[in-house]
Amino acid sequence: MDIAAVDDEKAIREHICGLVEEQQPESRIEAYATGEELLASGKRFDIVFLDIQMEGMNGIEVARSLREKQNVGTGNGQKILPE
């Protein structure tokens, strides 16, 4: 399973990554400091943890963009979870 954690606070990104690595060692997690970085990566993830209150694009804007680009919510898309 491919997972992304997006948060402008490094400590929170590290915490989420640590939890995922501990609980789901077979999964792959990538951390991003901004929504723009995540979107620029062009990668598709099964689960995306998003910080709702970030500078620049906030988590809600990132989620909307992901849904528009990747058909999230159709049963075949990624899960987006607010932090």
What attributes characterize this protein structure?
single chain; alpha/beta; Rossmann fold; four-stranded parallel β-sheet; globular
Give the structure's gist in a few sentences.
The chain has 83 residues and is of the alpha/beta class. Helices cover 40% and strands 22% of the residues. It has a single domain, classed as Response regulator (Rossmann fold, 3-Layer(aba) Sandwich).
Description:
Keywords: Phosphoprotein. It holds the Pfam family Response_reg. This protein has 83 residues and is α/β, with parallel strands linked by helices. The protein has one domain: Rossmann fold (3-Layer(aba) Sandwich). The chain is 40% helix and 22% strand. The protein contains 3 helices and 4 strands. A 4-stranded parallel β-sheet has the order 2-1-3-4, with helices on both faces. The mean pLDDT is 88.
